[in-house]
Structures are given as C-alpha cells and as structure tokens.
Amino acid sequence: MSTHNPGIDPLLGLRAPQDPACDVFLTGTVFLDIVFTGLDSAPVRGTESWARGMGSSPGGVANMATALARLGLHTSLAAAFGDDHYGEYCWDALEQGEGIDLSMSHTVPGWHSPVTVSMAYEGERTMVSHGHEAPAPATTPLPGRTFPYCPPRARAAVASLTPGRSEPWVAAAAREGAMIFADVGWDETGRWDLDALPDLGHCLAFLPNAEEAMRYTRTDCPRAAAHALAERVPLAVVTLGAEGAYAVDGATGAAAEVPAIEVEALDPTGAGDVFVAGFVTGTLAGWPMADRLAFAGLTAALSVQEFGGSLSAPGWTEVAAWWQRVRTCAGQDPAALERYAFLEDLLPAADRAWPLRRAVPTIGFGSEGRTPAG
Q1: pTM of structure
Q2: Residue 173: which of 148, 142, 152 has the closest Cα?
Q3: What is the pLDDT of residue 147?
Q4: I need a labelling partner for 191 at 20 to 30 A (CA). Which of 31, 96, 103, 215 fits?
Q5: Are the CB atoms for 296 and 245 separated by under 8 Å?
C-alpha cells in the first residue's frame, strides 16, 4: 500500500458484496517522465542549462491512475508497457508502489517505452516527448485479459475524448453501469464540434478547462459554457485555473462554484489529472457538488507544490497535514475554513507536520529507489 494512502477508504460504508471489485478503470499510454526543476528560465538555444532538481516517475495515464489510487480507490489500468528497463520501472512503481491493478495491462516485446522530458520554470512547463504507438493487441484475448473487448466491471471509468474518434470500451463500460468521467484535449482540427465527440453521450460528467469549454460551446464566458454543456451531459464541470472551478447539474440546473486555493506553484504537470481524480472520489462517495469541487481543487493545489505528474499526486496523508496546518494558522478566513469543514470527519489525525517532503523516485538505485514513498 502506498504511504500516501494510510488505509483510508473514501467509500467505506458504501461497499456491498455485490459491488464490483474495481472502483475506477482507465486506459491510455504510460510514459516515463523525467522532470527537471529549479530552472531560472527557459533553456536558451545554443547554451547548456543546469537544473537544481531532477526526478523520474511514470507519466501519461499513470498520472491519473496514481492520483486515484492514492485517494484510496481500487484502480485498474489497461496499458502497454515496453520490455525495456523504463517499462519495468513504471510497471513496478505502479503495481508495487501504488497498488494499482495491472492485470489488464501487458508487456510488448521489443517495444521501447515512450519518454517525456519536462522542464519546469516560472510556474510553467516545457515538454519534449518521444515514442512510437504500441503494436495492436493480440487478436485473441489473453487469459484473464479481455481488454479491449470487455473492460472490467467498475463503479466508474475515466476517458479522454478525442474529436472524431470513438472508443468501444467506453460504451461497454457504461452498459455495465460504470459512471463515465471524461476530459478532452486541444482540438487540433480547429472544429470544436461537440458532435465530433461521440462518446460524450455515455458520460456522466464532462470536465474541460475554460478555454476548451468556451470553444466547444461558442461562448465567451466559462460559466455560460458550463450551462451550455449541461444540456449535453448530466454534469458539466469547467476548471477556471486560478479562479477555481464551476459545475452545473444538467438535471436540476443547480450550479456550484469554488474558488481556487492560492499556492506557490512549482510544477503544474498532472494537476488536471489530480483534479479529476478528486472529483471522481467525491462523486463515488456521494458528496454534495460543492464539496466535490472543493476537494478536487484542494488536491490539485497540493499537487502543483511538488514537481512531476504521478510523483506530485497527494494522498490522505498530505490532505490531513494541510488541514491540520490551515486550522491552526492565525489569520485564516473563517468562511474559507468552513468551506473545507467536511474534511473533519474524513481525515485521520495528522501524524506528520506540514510541509511534507515527498520522496523522489528515480531509476538506478534498486528496489528502494523505485517505489514512491510518502
């Protein structure tokens, strides 16, 4: 079990014998992320820059999987892994270090792992990636590994929508009763057409950022965009960056908005994935919409204070330490504290003082160096 999740089950009391063993299913590409931090500025052409910090961790879809697992959700990931040292490291870090179920994943002989080098500076990031698409899976499902023919039965699934492309597993998961949460990337076609997202019709919640939401709805206000999206999905959630997030319930028209927590951002890599993971957790736990938004924003805020994607994802240990600190700091806004009072009954007693220093996993130090620690 990851030390970021000290035995906390956010769905305790809601589980029943007939429930699926998997809380959340997701699929995608796992990258090896190599992150450089402590750069004073962007690298300058023709010069050599030295970074004051560096770390390695699984990235890509592993960011989301790790964020979910650290919040205590039973997470299943279907992905291809290279049979190189990078692939072995990522597999071990996710399965052994984070407790993620990789029974739907497979190793591809002769395929090298995709790699992303990320450079963080001035609260921004620049990335360079390299990789080749994984070979298509075997035409005959392997024993115990039926994906992509039938995803496991799960409470929820997280999908990344792509214009003009439908993923059959999304419809299959929805038919089996999974709540589908989806985000979306930049539309390189420039069409920004919601009808070009065929899997949107299977989604319970759609979570674009403000720019994406406004472009898809032809609006000039992210809140107006959220209301327009709520006509297409049961729950529309628009992230507003430094302003927080805004959500609309499509069935009732009720809206909720929660401001962002002001933090000094070190590296925004993976913050969007952490936000979605926090919102999924609150939804499965049955929390009110405003609490879900607040928790998702809190976990995202905690993540940007560390570098890396999966490396920075907070667990209950970090949330408990943060809550203990803000309650005991002088000069806090009582209304702001009240917004997070719902955490009181959820969190264990904080046994470590804030700020917490999270271990930096990297490749080359054997088993102890390959497992993220709290």
Answers
A1: 0.89
A2: 152
A3: 54
A4: 31
A5: yes
